[in-house]
Write a structure and sequence with these properties.
- The chain folds into two domains: 2-90, no CATH class; 97-189, 2-Layer Sandwich (GMP Synthetase, Chain A, domain 3).
- The chain is an alpha+beta fold.
- The chain has helices at residues 2-28, 31-34, 55-59, 67-90, 112-124, 157-175, and strands at 97-101, 107-111, 129-139, 142-151, 183-189.
- The strands form two sheets. It has a three-stranded mixed β-sheet with strand order 3-4-5, with helices on one face.
- The termini are far apart.
- The protein contains six helices and five strands; from the N terminus they run ααααββαββαβ.
């Protein structure tokens, strides 16, 4: 869905910019007189000395009390919509469901949140792990796991990551009937006071 919206928005922006650029170039290079063709009467630029907005156009609404609030609100909406669209691009889309191969030619749909919870529960039971957050992203036939692993004060990072990959993720891959389950693992540690030695 997001890819479709992106393509539509980029396509519309491209068409508008292409049309505006063509209008400016045809007028600025005076192509209609050089190549002897006529333009529609509504064409905005007639020659190299034409401008996008004339002085009269720019000053037309300044005297009206509604002009500045409307202009500011419209620009604010455009900026907020652009920021929202930019943030949506960076946020990974969480999978709602994962396709599981039943082995007999049939497939089943498993809720993505249920699989995330199962992987997090198994990973949380590993020695040296305090807390785990698992998020499945990607396509429902080829999910990817984003794992945030918070280690306990005496947890060994290498051991925890090895057991997470070899046991938890491997078992999740096999139980879901996936050919592969790539994972991005981020490590963190629980804040704790330094211990006295003595």
């Amino acid at each position: 869905m997001l890819k479709t919206v992106n393509r539509i928005l980029v396509g519309l922006a491209g068409v508008v910019l292409l049309a505006l650029g063509a209008a400016v170039l045809i007028g600025a290079l005076d192509l209609q007189r050089r190549w002897s063709f006529t333009l529609p009467s509504a064409w905005p630029f007639d020659g190299p000395h034409d401008v996008l907005l004339t002085d009269a156009d720019r000053r037309r609404w300044r005297g009206s009390g509604w002009w500045w609030p409307v202009a500011i609100i419209a620009l604010a909406v455009v900026v907020l919509a652009a920021l929202w669209w930019l943030l949506v691009q960076w946020r990974p889309r969480r999978l709602r469901e994962v396709v599981v191969d039943c082995g007999d030619g049939q497939v089943a749909l498993v809720r993505g949140r249920a699989l995330e919870d199962a992987l997090a529960a198994q990973a949380g039971a590993l020695d040296g792990v305090d807390h785990v957050l698992v998020t499945l992203v990607g396509r429902r036939t080829a999910p990817e796991a984003h794992v945030r692993l918070i280690l306990a004060p005496r947890g060994a990072p290498a051991t925890a990551v090895h057991r997470l990959c070899a046991e938890v993720l491997q078992q999740g891959r096999v139980s879901a009937g996936l050919a592969r389950l790539p994972a991005e693992i981020r490590l963190g540690a629980v804040r704790h006071r330094a211990e006295r030695v003595g």
